[in-house]
Amino acid sequence: MTYPIRVRTSALIIQDNKVLLVEFKDENGLHYNLPGGGVESGETLVESVKREALEEASVHIEVHFYMSMHHSKIKRSTALCIH
Question: Which residues contact 67 (CB under 8 A, 6 or more apart)?
Answer without folding.
Answer: 12, 83
